[in-house]
Amino acid sequence: MKFTPQLDAQGNYFWLVEMRCHQRLLMAEGYTLKEAIENGLKLVEEMAIQAARRKFPAL
User: Fold this and answer.
1) How far is residue 2's CA from residue 14's CA, in Å, rounded to a whole number?
2) Beta bridge partner(s), residue 43
3) Which of 13, 21, 36, 56 has CB 3.0 to 4.6 Å from 30, enough for a Cys bridge?
4) Are 27 and 16 in contact (CB under 8 A)?
5) Can you count the helices (H) and strands (E) in the chain?
6) For 29, how many CA atoms within 13 A lie in the half-sphere containing its CB?
7) Both ends of the chain: CA-CA distance in Å?
8) pLDDT along the chain (59 residues), means of 10
């Protein structure tokens, strides 16, 4: 995981979280570090749900 503070066009800070999972780059952002991490975890959760649905179509 990589955490990077960024500036938007209006000069406000936001956090960018980059994660690699099964050769995929997942990126999430948020105005606070906590929000960015939570958004990143939601991406990982969604990726796991999709993988489970592919493996077990009856779910």
Assistant:
1) 14
2) none
3) 36
4) yes
5) 1, 3
6) 11
7) 30
8) 92 94 90 95 93 85
Please report, as a single letter, which amino acid is at residue 31.
Y
pLDDT given for residue 2 in this prediction: 93
Per the structure, the complete domain to which residue 20 belongs is given by 2-55
Q: How many domains does the chain have?
A: 1
What are the helix (H) ranges across 1-59? 33-55
d(CA 1, CA 48): 17
